[in-house]
Specification:
By secondary structure, this protein is an all-alpha fold. It contains six helices and no strands. Helix 3 runs antiparallel to helix 5. The chain is flat.
Length: 150
């Protein structure tokens, strides 16, 4: 659903989201086209998009960390939460599990752990771009200071 449609039909929201109810919301919204719809400034949309991409990467990184930790727990390797804990434990854990697990699994664990550095790099790149953009453009700096954006 597009943002415009969401904003336009929100005032006409009827209970739960069954198809018939949703169709009625749209029909009601079309009957009142004079209702103003707030259009976000382009700069704010871009800033929100960058932050959204960063948030997705952070969630993906967390998911990968928890997945690796959980999988290793299934094979008797317990470790605390967090990236630093995983990074400290993996050099010791991988040789230990390589004695009792298939090489394909150990290699995949190694690859997934190494891939986290790439995700860290992507997050750092987006953060760097946001910082540089703030320095160059006063409008961007103003938008980034809005609560929930910056």
């Amino acid at each position: 659903m597009t943002t415009l449609r969401k904003m336009r039909t929100k005032a006409f929201n009827i209970r739960n989201k069954r198809d018939a109810a949703h169709a009625r919301e749209i029909w009601l919204a079309v009957q009142h086209p004079s209702r103003p719809v707030a259009v976000e400034a382009e700069m704010r949309q871009v800033m929100l998009a960058l932050h959204r991409m960063r948030e997705q990467l952070v969630k993906f990184r967390t998911m990968q960390l928890n997945g690796l930790r959980g999988l290793l727990t299934e094979y008797g390797e317990f470790m605390g939460k967090g990236r630093a804990t995983l990074d400290r434990a993996m050099p010791e854990v991988l040789p230990r599990v390589s004695n009792r697990l298939p090489a394909a699994l150990v290699d995949t664990l190694q690859e997934q752990w190494s891939a986290l550095s790439g995700v860290d790099g992507q997050i750092a790149t987006i953060e760097r771009r946001i910082r540089e953009w703030k320095k160059e453009d006063g409008e961007v700096k103003a938008v980034s200071e809005i609560p929930g954006v910056g």
